[in-house]
Amino acid sequence: MSGQVLAGQPRPDDGTTASGILPRQRARRAAHPKRARPARVQAARATATVEVVIPVHNEERALPGCVAVLHEYLAARLPFDWLITIVDNASTDRTKTVARGLARQWRGVRVLALDARGKGRAVRTAWARSRADVVVYMDVDLSTGLEALLPMVASLVVGHSDVAIGSRLAPGARTVRGPKRELMSRVYNALLRLTHRTRFRDAQCGFKAARTDVIRPLLARVQDDTWFFDTELLLLAEHNGLRVLEVPVDWVEDVDSRVDVTGTVATNLRGLVRLARAKASGAARIAELPFRPAPRPTHPDAVLSVPGMPHLRNLLPFCLVGSVATLMTLGLFTAFRTWWPPLVANLVAVTLSALFNTEANRRFTFDGWSSRLPRVHVQVVLVFGLYCGFTCGALLALHSAVVAPSRWVELAVLVGSSAVGTLGRFALLSSWVFRSLPEPAPVAQPTEEVPA
């Protein structure tokens, strides 16, 4: 059964939000005798509400066809109540007039008019004012096939994902576009993975959705009002542990584009630098986001693995970083040894390599962990002191046992002590410095019911 237009929707063009959304229904669940009742009971909805936002600027030609196709698809295929919102951001042609005509022609279409330009501003304003359970935005050219909409929305409605995005670069995606745009897209997303270690593959596809209760705290922190809005939103979402679902899409390029490629590249590069600084300083953490509990077994009698084993997933990147740091230590020690005694040369070499090692592990091994940075820095200094003392102690033991050992023997002892010290550093960093924060105590919730 297809969904319906949200009942009682106004048709203003002054920014009035959607209203008349059906109340959610609740379900009572029996607890297993061996399984604790969840702290929060997920609502079982008779229906969900979806608001689809179309940001437009000077799109009088493309808008009518977009609304007609989208309205027909939603009415026939989307099994949720829905609303289409056209957001005009300071168009200078007849776009606003055309949009108002479409709102009068089609039930379930409204217009929101803004006085300032910016795709990001348009999406943020409409999403922030929405009363729907799920908010969506898509480009007016409908380059992305609408078949991907329902998989995205369904994952958000059931609470599995927090943000859902269409991807032209995910396995299974099919795209028809020119080589220039293809190259630029792949280079940009590769740059994201290199500089921010993103897990999603396509930040710029104009086809995204989110749970409204999750997206509002993010929208308050996103600063960009233009084309970097998408990237900034996703970087903040992933950095704060939200689950981002990536759905492969069919995508056909529309060459009638309003994108200023040169200006967009410059804006994006500045935005990436700004977000990197925010992550490093801890300013990118958002405390207001809904709490998502750690994974727990579904089966009440599941046999679990040894506690603490998840730390082993960090061992490989830690070893890679440690190998680079060890080579760096050996190179610096060899250079400094020509001027200084072994203990001084080792202290300077280990200090420099430890700075690299700690920052690389924070970014790559422990996923950009940045909470409580002052405490982390103090703990890192203590761990470094233990590591440096261990390697210096190994060199002292060598010189006390062997008179004038060769440079190769010194290097061998340094490598061995560094390897043992690295394992100790990993244990301390994973279990003490970068340990996961304890989950907050669950809050008892009243029993929730669904009518029979």
Automatic annotation (TrEMBL):
Q: Where is the composition biased (Basic residues)?
A: 25-38
- Per the UniProt entry, the Enzyme Commission number(s) are 2.4.1.117
> Pfam family of this protein, just one?
GtrA_DPMS_TM
Q: Where is this region: Disordered?
A: 1-42
Its transmembrane ranges are: 315-333, 339-357, 378-402, 408-428
- Report the top EC class in one word: transferase
The Glycosyltransferase 2-like domain extends over 52-215
Using the record's annotation, list all stretches that form the GtrA/DPMS transmembrane domain: 318-434
What membrane topology does this protein have? Single-pass membrane protein; Multi-pass membrane protein
Q: Main localization of the protein?
A: endoplasmic reticulum
Q: Which pathway is recorded for this entry?
A: Protein modification; protein glycosylation
Keyword DNA damage appears in the UniProt entry: no
Q: Where in the cell is it found?
A: Endoplasmic reticulum membrane; Membrane
Q: Which reaction does it catalyse?
A: a di-trans,poly-cis-dolichyl phosphate + UDP-alpha-D-glucose = a di-trans,poly-cis-dolichyl beta-D-glucosyl phosphate + UDP
**Record keywords, A-Z:** Endoplasmic reticulum, Glycosyltransferase, Membrane, Signal-anchor, Transferase, Transmembrane, Transmembrane helix
Under InterPro entries, the record lists: DPG_synthase, Glyco_trans_2-like, GtrA_DPMS_TM, Nucleotide-diphossugar_trans
UniProt lists the family membership as follows:
Belongs to the glycosyltransferase 2 family.
This protein is called dolichyl-phosphate beta-glucosyltransferase
